[in-house]
Amino acid sequence: MRNRDPILAVLREVLPTSGTVLEIAAGTGEHAVYFSRFLPGLFWKPSDPDTNARASIAAWREAEGLPNLMVPIALDAAAAPWPLESADALVCINMIHISPWSATLGLMAGAGRLLSQGAPLVLYGPYRREGHAIEPGNAAFDEDLKRRNPEWGLRYLEDVAKVAVGHGLVLDRVVEMPANNLTVVFRRC
């Protein structure tokens, strides 16, 4: 909840005014509810590979009754094909660091397949950056993630961007966010 308003501010700037937004790794669905409430021209399509997460999203959807919040779908970013053929935008919040690198590779491949020219892929979370010292809080978080699962951890933004370019995406902007996080916007070229 603490990051939703700063993320929403960026989404208002970079998302189209209408169309379908596919949210990858939507988790409990709290962001999906919040963003669909404040972006009524967009159909928000939440996805998650976890059955319990999708049940939570469905419960939020039923409780809130938002007409533009769609039924959640099962989607593992690392797997192909995805259960959609296109989307007007993709949003992925706090997944890249709490998943194996294969999920990032799959996310970029999926964005390259689904998005049309100029459409955004919006990422949010903590990153390492070449030439920037890692903040103490992010360093401790990175160590904790790697202790929990050696395939997890803060990724270098430059590595993520390199994979994105390989799938027809270009870095559009990097927005500094509260708590040493970034919102990163790529666009399909």
UniProtKB/TrEMBL annotation:
Lineage: superkingdom: Bacteria
Pfam family, one: DUF938
Gene3D superfamilies noted in UniProt: Vaccinia Virus protein VP39
Protein name according to UniProt: DUF938 domain-containing protein
Species of origin: Novosphingobium clariflavum
Organism classification: Bacteria, Pseudomonadati, Pseudomonadota, Alphaproteobacteria, Sphingomonadales
